[in-house]
């Protein structure tokens, strides 16, 4: 046993840079003397001083439990680096591990005063009765720091969230004072840094962060040469989605695409168009994520006429007001079947006066509405010219022509009325479809036939 103990202590003295040299007086078996550490257990000691004297644990490790009874009367000599506050600390307490490899130690406490206990300290000697070991084990005591983070105000859309709080540290009087020019890190709950702020002369810090959803965070502050570290509990910054009013026509046509658009923030959000069926809302067949600029457009093609309620529903994760929606009422109309649009002119080809057998010109365009609502030319369709005197019972066809591929028509005809008679003329397009599909132009004239 003696050889084992001697070997262990010798190894400690050879492998630590802080160990001193033993005195000339022999130390029996060197069972109790060893280089101390400033801790109660394996974990490191955080020496921070607040408003009461700080109890600093001085610990010497033993190689076996029975030495508790042998190594009695041990002390450690501790003082500040400038030589003040020289204190003899009795190592009169026993420590052993409750889990893991067995560890035994003798320890005691140095009481660092509030007024001037902060700063550099050093353990200079360990004694056991008349035996001693000169050592040099430095450690520091700093003032305790405190840090707060206030509950952030809930923000909407792209508005940035303000994060603020106050950093303080204890003074030599035991009171707290602002801790100025301290770096404060705002940390995400996942462990990464969101942003950094610096405290002002009052100890207050302020930072802003753009969040896209509810986020838990806390503030942390690293130690300085004079003050210890600090961190806060987690708080949650809450977000609301902000949705613009809908941009959409309040009327639509059967079998024609109707569009609704808008913007919504923050972040990439899901938008879906829904239709009210009289009992519940159902998908209208248009959905997708917003673009990078927050915009979206949804489409609907009604298949029947009537008045309909539609809404755009926006949703996203961890937003206090998700899902959110806006609604619009749309009146859908059924367009007449292939209605036509006729524009044209009837006039003397060479100009007035109009006489018997004067050459007249009729020209213009014939268009038709397509199924999608747009207008296009009607080709190879006959446009007739009709004339009528006041005493005539009806209109008489006096000319006509067929349209070209662009819908253009042109024809000439001669006046068949005697001098002194008056007549009017119209253009007419007639189809085999219902009468609503036929078109008659405005009336031209009256023209008076000159001698």
What can you tell me about this protein's structure?
With 451 residues, the chain is mostly beta strands. Helices cover 4% and strands 51% of the residues. Strand 8 and strand 9 (131-143) form a beta hairpin. The longest helix has 14 residues, at 2-15. The chain is rod-shaped and about 155 Å long. Residues 1-29 have low confidence and may be disordered.
What is the topological layout?
Layout: H1 2-15, E1 19-22, E2 48-49, E3 54-62, H2 67-70, E4 74-80, E5 87-90, E6 93-96, E7 104-112, E8 119-128, E9 131-143, E10 145-147, E11 155-156, E12 161-170, E13 176-178, E14 183-188, E15 193-198, E16 204-209, E17 215-221, E18 230-231, E19 235-237, E20 239-240, E21 242-243, E22 247-248, E23 251-253, E24 258-265, E25 270-276, E26 281-289, E27 295-300, E28 306-315, E29 324-333, E30 340-348, E31 359-369, E32 375-377, E33 382-388, E34 396-402, E35 408-414, E36 422-429, E37 439-440, E38 444-448
Parallel strand pairs: 2-9, 11-20, 23-29
Antiparallel strand pairs: 1-9, 3-7, 4-5, 4-8, 6-7, 8-9, 10-12, 12-13, 12-16, 14-15, 14-17, 17-18, 17-19, 21-24, 22-24, 24-27, 25-26, 25-28, 28-29, 30-31, 31-32, 31-35, 33-34, 33-36, 36-37, 36-38
């Amino acid at each position: 046993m003696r050889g084992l103990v001697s070997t262990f202590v010798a190894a400690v003295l050879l492998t630590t840079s802080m160990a001193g040299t033993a005195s000339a007086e022999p130390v029996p078996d060197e069972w109790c003397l060893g280089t101390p550490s400033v801790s109660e257990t394996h974990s490191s000691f955080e020496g921070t001083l607040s408003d009461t004297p700080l109890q600093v644990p001085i610990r010497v490790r033993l190689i076996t439990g029975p030495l508790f009874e042998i190594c009695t009367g041990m002390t450690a000599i501790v003082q500040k680096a400038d030589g003040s506050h020289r204190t003899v600390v009795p190592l009169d307490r026993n420590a052993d591990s409750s889990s893991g490899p067995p560890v035994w130690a003798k320890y005691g406490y140095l009481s660092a005063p509030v007024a001037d206990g902060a700063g550099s300290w050093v353990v200079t000697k360990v004694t056991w009765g008349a035996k001693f070991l000169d050592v040099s084990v430095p450690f520091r005591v700093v003032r305790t720091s405190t840090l707060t983070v206030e509950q952030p105000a809930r923000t909407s859309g792209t508005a940035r969230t303000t994060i603020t709080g106050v950093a303080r540290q204890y003074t030599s009087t035991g009171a707290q004072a602002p801790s100025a020019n301290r770096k404060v890190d705002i940390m995400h709950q996942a462990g990464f840094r969101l942003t950094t702020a610096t405290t002002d002369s009052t100890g207050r810090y302020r930072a802003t962060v753009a969040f896209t959803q509810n986020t838990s965070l806390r503030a942390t502050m690293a130690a300085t040469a004079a003050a210890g570290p600090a961190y806060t509990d987690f708080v949650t910054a809450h977000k609301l989605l902000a949705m613009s009013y809908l941009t959409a026509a309040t009327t639509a046509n059967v079998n024609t695409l109707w569009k609704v658009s808008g913007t919504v923030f923050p972040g990439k959000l899901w938008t879906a168009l829904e239709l009210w069926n009289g009992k519940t809302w159902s998908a209208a067949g248009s959905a997708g994520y917003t673009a990078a600029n927050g915009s979206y457009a949804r489409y609907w093609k009604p298949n029947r006429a009537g008045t309909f309620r539609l809404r755009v529903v926006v949703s996203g994760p961890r937003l206090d007001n998700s899902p959110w929606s806006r609604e619009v009422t749309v009146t859908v109309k059924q367009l007449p079947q292939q209605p036509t649009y006729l524009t044209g002119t009837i006039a003397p080809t060479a100009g007035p006066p109009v006489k018997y057998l004067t050459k007249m010109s009729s020209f213009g365009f014939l268009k038709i509405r397509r199924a999608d609502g747009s207008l296009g030319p009607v080709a190879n369709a006959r446009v007739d010219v009709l004339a009528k005197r006041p005493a005539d019972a009806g209109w008489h066809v006096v000319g006509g022509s067929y349209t070209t591929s662009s819908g253009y028509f042109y024809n000439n005809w001669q006046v068949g009325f005697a001098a002194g008679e008056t007549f009017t003329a119209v253009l007419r397009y007639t189809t085999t479809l219902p009468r609503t599909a036929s078109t008659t132009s405005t009336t031209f004239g009256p023209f008076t036939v000159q001698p």
